[in-house]
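Q: Fold this one first, please.
A: Sequence and structure below.
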Amino acid sequence: MSKARGYAVYSSKSGFELFTFDRRELRDNDVRIEILYCGVCHSDLHTARDHWDGLIYPDGTLYPNVPGHEIIGKVAEVGSSVSRFKLGDLVGVGCMVDSCQHCKACGSGLEQYCENVTTWTYNSPDRVTGDITRGGYSDSIVVREEFVLNIRHETKDLAAVAPLLCAGVTMWSPLKHWGVGPGSKVGIVGIGGLGHMGIKLAYALGARVVAFTTSESKREAALSLGVDEVVNSRDAGQMAAHAGTLDLIINTVAVPHDLDAYTSLLGLNGTMALVGNPEDPHPSPSVATLLGGRRSIAGSLIGGIAETQRMLNFCATHGILADIETIRMQDIETAFERMLKSDVKYRFVIDMASLKEAA
């Protein structure tokens, strides 16, 4: 085993504390990674505060909990059968560290839908030992080779690559699944950590992009990201102007709201993909609105390993990065508070070098 240092919460009400723990001995197909940067996702906050008891996690959050699933690092050690990575390689780890590898979903490259339970990067039982996984708010992690990703961006950009491992692929997967490209008209609801990545990716894929926000103050920021139009979703006239015109809407909002306001904007065979997971259900949508244009409401959960690698390669080729604010590990509580207020453009990323300063 190797010793790791990180930040953990010990209950839903407690703050983060320095935490020393064991990472497992390397299995033949394992890679040990020295973590350089880790993005801060809303899922980290929801898990730390046990908001998803029974929704995502059957047994709630298991403490002490070390969050973090937007991980960039370099290979520090490899198992005897590892062939794809060598010491010093720049790599990434996203939301998953294992799956059964033999069910229909895994065979289709959709490990996030594993029929025998995906092993998440944190708060999941290890498939072999049953020990609870601990994430990237730490200085190292051990991951099965198949779930380690190649990073091709320049070294100077690594911090801004970290959010691609969750926010990036969460938006990429529905864009690709529903065939977005030149000639498509795509709506992105919410201009935050997820939404800003959706705008960048949809634009780079050649789509016409419409951003929806409840905040007029975000208009200029959205336009600077590459959107063609910004719609204030509280303005009925602006919304009506897009009725029946959108091929795909990706809705990132993770609080309950009226879905009908958006499904009515879909054209024939249009789909709204929900990627935000609210604590309480959305109001029931109107069936008539769906029937009227053979419209659909669907869900999409992150992305598989192969499509995550394709997304990373695409972003490296097109120079796509997240807009970030780098923080110290010691400032994670402040980052959580600001994240709840949407006071970040658009993603916090922890510089793990700061962990060496922790008492």
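Q: Good. Now the second chain.
A: Here it is, same layout.
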Amino acid sequence: MRAKLEALMRSMNLQEGSSSGKGKKDMKDHKFWSTQPVPKHDEQITTMGPIEPSIPVDQVSKVPAPLPKEFEWCELDMNVEKDAKELYDLLTLNYIEDDDEQFRFDYSISFLKWALQPPNWRKEWLVGVRVASNKKLVAFISAIPIQLRTFDQSTLMTDINFLNVHKKLRSKRLAPVMIREITRRSHINGIFQAVYTAGAILPKPISTCQYFHRSLNPKKLVECGFSRIPHKWTLARMIKHFKVPEKTSIPGFREMQQKDVPEVRVLVNKYMERFDFAPVFETDQDVEHWILPHKEVVWSYVVEDPKTNKITDMISFYSLPSSVIGNPKHKTLNAAYLYYYATDVINATDNSKDDDDQEPPKLLGKRLNDLVGDVLVMAKRLNFDVMNGLQLMDNGLFLQQQKFGAGDGYLNYYLYNWRCPDVDDSKVGLVML
């Protein structure tokens, strides 16, 4: 299972045509990135702030970056079904695929609408490239606004995602042109910093997080060729090992509702203060969009104290299935991805959290194990086959106990035009889609 998952994960990068994050190149080998305001691989960073100064918006070029003559720029409107379907087809057929061409990420149209239309989204930031002669969509890049805190500084940035070029056009070097164009469009709106992730090692990650995977349906994963039965194990033993309880265990554990949004925003923002690299949910609308359950896209649960009716905990995951290619028995692998969570147990552990010599707070570890255990119950009940997660936030307190297996895949976090000291994976609070 893990090898296939890592092959998919490693393909998520901003280096056109690359699907491997092995090794660091010299800056001279990164011809494009050496022209951009990003740190060098060997640069030791102790201060924080812009690499290049912002320029007056009226001095930003109004002319799009030049494309090869056979292509033209376009903007996609996710509220127009034709545009949404074109993007779905482009990503489904060209975006993320494992090395053996057995599995391919299958972002749903509902997922893409959710990911690309948060509060204050802009149509001009959903940038496509079409073939001029037949108007076929062959490339795409997106930006959405994000309020990101790096240590003690909160900055409005763009979150860059879904950079994809049709497989047959990878030699055209469209990706650097698209990055320049989305940068120009961000600058026009007065935003001069960005955040992005990549499986590839580019100049220069501020943090690197390892992937972990928790089997929920071992039999199906084996039948798909996604998992292997461990040496000296039987399938029956494997199924027993990964079995989850039938019912949740925390009193007051329930699905999040609209009325919970204000309390959840306070709870999540307080929890995010634990981390050095984290989003800020500035409005209730942010929480309503990103965390409130969206049908078939994101599931969120809260714990409502039976005595006080106060929301004490929240945990969520989103759905990103993969198509199973050429398998006679299964067409889809249903994967859940651990998303944001928060608990007010930190109020009782704040005094010890900064002491590096102490063991992880037992109270927080127990609570997170209970929460994740309950969300695994819900994911299994919803027929997910596997739960994926990264080694970030406080995940180290529960991954092993909840039987997540360490994978070979890693996700690198990057900042554009923002110098920032390295961040330990346990201090990363941003979960990227």
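Q: Anything worth noting on the second one?
A: Confidence is low (pLDDT under 50) at residues 1-7, 9-23, 351-359.
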